Amino acid sequence: MIREITLYSTPGCVYAQQMRLCLASLGAPASLVADEALSGTVNVDGKNFQSILELGITLENIGIQFFPEEERKRERQLNIALGFNQRMIQIFGVMMEDNVHRNEAFHIFMESLAIFENELIRCGRYFGGRAPGFLDFFLFPYIQRIGVWTPEFLKGELVRIQAWRRRMKEEELVMTDVHKTTRSELLKYAKQLRQMPAEVRAIKRLNSCGQLVED
């Protein structure tokens, strides 16, 4: 049984938003602590977790359903999330440096979304089916920032992802997020990230194992 959850969270942080949405979907109350260096880390009964994948596995080990219940869907979506995490580690810092021009990193990012588009064909309105699930909360913070930190989708580009983004924006968990951010706040946060030295930014770009990744 979980006794205490502390989430280190700052507005604008992708990892912290993933954690907040997932914990809210489980109805798990968490104490929020503003900490730039640790943002996106959650502490459960004294143990730190630095990705929702780590957190989910731990919760399931104590009997709390987190990932899809159906085995094949669970395995498929976990692999999708792990693969996307690894890709983002390599390109996210470059991808967000220009919200006007489509640089090479942005093209790689868009290609990485094709597998999510296909997964929506399988699953329906949400990756969780009729309602948002683990993969919805995993991906949404990235997609929310398209057009803010990066160039916007083109008309007719990844149309299912675009429609899904509109639905997610209207979800109660997203609307009531305690650190819900405006476009101007996201732009301000991106500017702050760009001004940070590479070694500081590396702290904010943790992979699913919690290892630091150098630029």
Automatic annotation (TrEMBL):
GO terms for biological process: glutathione metabolic process. Pfam families: GST_C_2. InterPro entries: Glutathione-S-Trfase_C_sf, GST_Omega/HSP26. SUPFAM superfamilies: GST C-terminal domain-like. One of its GO terms (cellular component) is cytoplasm. GO terms for molecular function: glutathione dehydrogenase (ascorbate) activity; glutathione transferase activity. It comes from the Eukaryota. Gene3D superfamilies: 1.20.1050.10. This is GST C-terminal domain-containing protein. It comes from Oikopleura dioica (Tunicate).
